[in-house]
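Sample intake sheet
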Amino acid sequence: MSRSIKKALAPIVSRLSEPDPFAYLSSDKKALIDFVFQRFRPKSFADLGGVWNVAGGYTFYTLEKRTIEKAFLVDTDFTDDVLQRAKLYPALEAVHGNFGKREIIWKVKNVDAVFLFDTLLHQVNPDWDDLLKAYSSTVKHFVILNQQYTGSEHTTRLLNLGEDEYFKNVPHNRDEPPYDSLFQKLDEVHPQHQRPYRDIHNIWQWGITDVDLIELMRTLGFTMQFYKNSGQFGALKRIENHSFVFSR
């Protein structure tokens, strides 16, 4: 191979040899993002609750892979690293707060697509269904991966199952915060969120069933464009990872 050809190929070879900066992210969630952007080509999105445990990874993945005019990353807890990285993307706005609050809904809901990854089951006041209703008036695509409940035909508030059954359906132990005193503090006001412990999004709240989610989206005028059952979630026998794309 000539020296000139080697020089021309060097940048390509170097890029191909770089480790994938998004390899740590869920392949199911990346596939959902790829599906909706390849099929429908949205130009804007909001990643709701997208910081915890993934450092905004799905937001940055989308911004790197797609042409985006406007994006929002919304969470109650940002890290300095995420905020610094967000500054590299002019189209991105980091929004600090609970994405169920009215003022945040009004700020970010005028986007083409909303990501709800591992977050829908946490939403209380507004509840998960009211949250979807609130965003549905303007959003065109809901991109959802949620831990769905198979223990009954219809959706269940997990706290109502009682302490023993609750811990059979959540991936947390009784001795880890904030679960260690949850059932003793249900009606106490959480100091950060200023709402009862029973209504904070930091804990598992709902066992949402496919039947109820799909029917709700149908009544809101959305059609299911994608569905995948990725199987049992960890050791929880009645919880499964299910992926959805709903569009109108």
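Comment: The first helix runs from residue 3 to 17. The domain at 29-247 is CATH 3.40.50.150 (Rossmann fold).
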